[in-house]
Amino acid sequence: MLFRSMAPSSLAQWFGAVGTIAAVVVALFKEPILAWRRKPRLNATSSKEPPWTGRTPIVVHDGQGAVLWTGDCYYVRAKVENFGKTRAEKVQVYASRLAKLGADNKFADIPTFLPLNLKWSNSPAGSAAAILDGISPKMGAFCDIVAVCDPANPHQTKPAGTPPNTTVGELQLEVAPFTGSHLLPPGTYRLTLRIAAGNVEPIEKVFGFTHTGTWLQNDAEMRRDCLGVSLE
User: Fold this and answer.
1) What's the sign of the alpha-carbon dihedral 221, 123, 187, 228?
2) Of 10-14, 164-168, 175-179, 194-198, which gets the smallest average pLDDT?
3) Which H or E run includes 53?
4) By CB count within 10 A, which of 11, 14, 36, 121 is most buried?
5) pTM greater than the 0.85 cutoff
6) CA torsion 45→49→223→142, rounded to 10°?
């Protein structure tokens, strides 16, 4: 054995050298290791049930206080949570790609879709609503993904050729593209989401969404028969 052939003084020197090297390694890598173990960790969930999807009364104004229309609208949201041990700073949810299910039962990308950030729920209007200041450990925040309103709303923008009394899904992007690529006729869609923060590497989730085009006044029947939501 190596230890048996070494003199006590040599053995002590060997252990001392090992201890010195170990101390140096710990000193060099302690902070990065602790930072890695304590870093923010983001995840997201969504469902067609509350609180992810809520039926909300809306009021359409003329800009001068007069009410033009009142009705209901479903807002489908993702809940972004921080399961790490430090605060996630400047969090954003980026809609990077949109695909629609075709008649061949395959998803095909929509080339006219403009990738943009989504808006955080209950945020002030404007681009600042697309970036959340932060999410503390064991806390979460809701991000709006798509809205489906009562088609009786005469002020809602709809794609050309949309039949009357047909619902339209409206992606809640930070701005509404002039191309109308954020307006979704009835169908099944996949929206690829990239979720990141200033101190967190991006993660990807695929949001699945279906709406049949039918609006039902009964909430339970509307959720059961006309809406489909998933996030994987």
Assistant:
1) negative
2) 10-14
3) strand 53-61
4) 121
5) no
6) -60
